[in-house]
Amino acid sequence: MSDLDSVYNSGMNFCQENHPRWAGRWLLLLLMISSLSGSGCHASYLLSNGSGVVHGLAGSIPIEQISRDPDLSPEARARLKILPGLLEFARNRGLRVGGAYRRVESTPLPASWIVVAADPKTVSLYHWKFPIVGVVPYKGFRFREHAVREAETLSDRGLIVEVMPVSAWSSLGWFPEPLPSSLLDLAEHRFATTVLHELVHRTIHISGESDLNEGLATFLGSRLAEEWLILQHGEESEVLTRHRSRERDEKRLNRLLRGLQQQLLEGDVEARIGQFRLQLADQPWQQWSGAELAKSSWSLPRILLAQVYDPERMPWSQLWLESTKDVQILVNRVIKEKPGTSTNRPSLEKK
């Protein structure tokens, strides 16, 4: 049996038994993969990730079943307990939840691995182009060894490359993705923020607009997580304080990174990154350690990728207020001003 046959059988059996209305989408995924199987370097990427989606779902465990596991940690049990309420909150706020996160991945591995590359001459990210998602500044792989192979190829071309683990992913509404088990180890405010971030991706995706997609998901995921935490614990709760202080740390880091990115265009990259590390060590962080941040890997790809997720590069706070803090109004405005989002994928089920 070929890899493609295995993917098809696993996916169709899962859909017919658990989500029969998704069977057509599995077939569409397989047709897309097979049609691109002769297209060169992208073929192995699509096949690997297509099988990852299918096998990840087929091997996932229903939340009700995993919640009964006596070996489940108290933290994981607590996250699973709040998950249904969090998903209901997301639906009520206008996010397209669909069938996502009704199951949990059975392995604790990273959700995927991404390759990020930067050109040191132009101080810019390398981009890939794919169907549906368009042009993106990273390339995902199910297996780390495949990502490393891609990184080596790009490195031979003179690019600076880094392979990074990814803790969560979104199918952009195409499939009922399971919850990555690694998220169950997160603190409550980080768990809520991450789940809501990924649900924003299920709700809206503008092809080829990575900065917009990730910036909006980062902004809205944090804002909605704050609302959720207030509903659950109140304005004076410790968990809400931690959420807000982390957001302040993230904004401070993003501002420093924006300044660094401008300086890198002027040359002497290594020296400027060294100065940036000293800045990190001196900042009055609320939740993070400046010394630990300074010792982190601040490669050129990581620094440039940070701008993709920076929500302050676009006026999301202003747009959020102008949309009366209504998710659907904001989404409709983005779609109107950046057309091409909902026409390139199937209609999602009603909320």
Beta percentage is 5-15%
Molecular shape: globular
Which percent range fits the helix content? 55-70%
Total beta strand runs: 8
* Total helical segments: 14
Question: What is the arithmetic mean of pLDDT?
Answer: 82
User: Main beta sheet, described?
Assistant: 4 strands, antiparallel
* Structural class by helix and strand composition: alpha+beta
Q: State the separation between the terminal residues, measured CA to CA.
A: 39 Å
Low-confidence stretches: 1-17, 26-46, 340-351
Tally of separate domains: 2
What's the SSE pattern? HHHEHHEEEEEEHEHHHHHHHH
Gyration radius from CA atoms, angstroms:
21 Å
Describe the structure in your own words:
56% of the residues lie in helices and 9% in strands. By secondary structure, it is of the alpha+beta class. The chain folds into two domains: 3-245 and 312-344, no CATH class; 246-311. 33% of the residues are buried. Mean pLDDT is 82; it is low at 1-17, 26-46 and 340-351.
Quick synopsis:
The protein has 351 residues and is of the alpha+beta class. The chain has helices at 3-18, 23-35, 41-58, 63-66, 74-92, 144-155, 188-203, 210-233, 238-264, 269-282, 290-295, 300-309, 316-322, 327-337, and strands at 61-62, 103-104, 112-119, 124-125, 128-130, 134-136, 139-141, 160-166.
Strand and helix map with partners:
Elements: H1 3-18, H2 23-35, H3 41-58, E1 61-62, H4 63-66, H5 74-92, E2 103-104, E3 112-119, E4 124-125, E5 128-130, E6 134-136, E7 139-141, H6 144-155, E8 160-166, H7 188-203, H8 210-233, H9 238-264, H10 269-282, H11 290-295, H12 300-309, H13 316-322, H14 327-337
